[in-house]
Input
Amino acid sequence: MKPADRQVLIERVVSAHRALDPLERLKSEPAFHDLDEAGRREAYELALTTRRLEAALDEAGLSSTGWAVLKRITER
Amino acid sequence: MDLDVHLAAIGAGDTQAFARWVAGAEPSVRASLARFAAQVDVEVVVQEALLRAWQFAPRVQCDGKPNCLLRFSVRAARNLAIDEVRHRRREVLRVPIDEELPVAPVEPDPLLRRAVEECRKQLPENPSRALLARVEAQGLESDAQIAERLGMKLNTLLKNFGRARQFLLECLERRGVHLSGELSA
Output
């Protein structure tokens, strides 16, 4: 895998967006399964940093993960 | 900091109180899953565990120690991750049930917020657009949808997002804010 392709997969895993299955359970990001263990760990570390930055940029102090969860409870 | 100050309101269905709780709790829940990072999609587990906190808040039995709901969520996250590993590997993971699960709620940090905002203003145009679009999407739009909205190719969006994050981290480092080290410590 080219480094650029690997980085794209990692960024997809870092995103907080996850599709729902028919039972409204979150599905794993497909790119997660295309990464090796080192890539998955790298995505995890980048997500830690990314969520902190997102929260700092948000008026309510919420990351994109926090907003995604809130959206799910308010739409139920 | 005891996030249980929000517990009664959350139990009564106050979503604003839950938002304040999530802002402080999410980093601990995510950090608690480091050992599973190579085996499960941690983002899914974090979101499901936070959702369970909302669902179970009215019924959580507190033990008098701080951060009762957060500790419940960290346990829920760990159990969800173990279930996922078992489901995929069909094997038993040995994790001590009574293991102490540390929690460290995050408090609002106005200095960090100001530093990040000032660094964000210095971002080149396309990384800035990618970063803001993902923040505005609030985890509800796929990257493909965001890319289409911005008129970028998907890979270009993702590369710009990575550049934006790197730029912000380097800018923060120059200001003496070491976010990466702080999070992995």
Observations:
- Chain B has two domains: 3-89, 110-184.
- Residues 35 and 107 of chain B are 24 Å apart (CA to CA).
